[in-house]
């Protein structure tokens, strides 16, 4: 039980660390009066990062471009760092001996999570959805702060989806390799 609590606490800490730059981006990027920083950031994102991806607002182009690129790139990175940190510090909870899932159940889980992950990946990293052209979602694109709220709600989903992918693949690999080691011996 103590291991699970430490794992959850570590997950919350990494999630909070990932949410801090959202506030900083909101404070320092102003689309109403373009500054040298915002123009440089816009050019850097277009030339070196993903460009205009994810859910953006044409009313706040630099802000939404910066925050959507941060969301698309940092959530997977932070989830890998968190999982590596948990492995290094050995805070991962031990798997229950009661649940003996078969390889076919693992494969079904991997396929389902992979499909769901691909949908998130397409929306986050490849498609550009301008919120001003949508009905209910368009309300989020009308204000810088509602757009921030949308991304703050979306970031934990994307972060946890990445963690789930890593966890399922690692669990399957451990289970598969344990079975292979038993066969070899």
Automatic annotation (TrEMBL):
GO terms, biological process: bacteriocin immunity
Domain of life: Bacteria
GO molecular function: toxic substance binding
Pfam families with a match to the protein in the record: Colicin_im
Transmembrane segments: 12-29, 70-88, 109-129, 149-172
Keyword annotations from UniProtKB, A to Z: Membrane, Transmembrane, Transmembrane helix
Protein name, as recorded: Colicin immunity protein
Organism the protein comes from: Yersinia enterocolitica
């Amino acid at each position: 039980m103590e291991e699970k609590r430490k794992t959850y606490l570590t997950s919350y800490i990494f999630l909070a660390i990932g949410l801090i730059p959202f506030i900083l981006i909101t404070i320092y990027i102003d689309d109403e009066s373009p500054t040298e920083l915002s123009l440089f950031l816009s050019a850097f994102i277009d030339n070196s990062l993903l460009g205009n991806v994810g859910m953006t607002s044409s009313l706040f182009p630099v802000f939404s471009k910066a925050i959507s690129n941060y969301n698309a790139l940092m959530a997977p990175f932070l989830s890998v760092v968190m999982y590596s940190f948990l492995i290094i510090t050995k805070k991962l909870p031990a798997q229950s001996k009661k649940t003996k899932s078969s390889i076919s159940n693992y494969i079904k889980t991997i396929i389902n999570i992979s499909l769901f992950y691909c949908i998130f990946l397409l929306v986050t990293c490849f498609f550009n959805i301008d919120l001003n052209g949508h009905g209910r979602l368009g309300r989020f694109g009308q204000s810088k702060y509602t757009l921030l709220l949308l991304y703050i709600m979306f970031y934990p989903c994307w972060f946890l989806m990445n963690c789930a992918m890593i966890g399922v693949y690692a669990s399957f690999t451990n289970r598969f390799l344990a079975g292979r080691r038993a066969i070899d011996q």
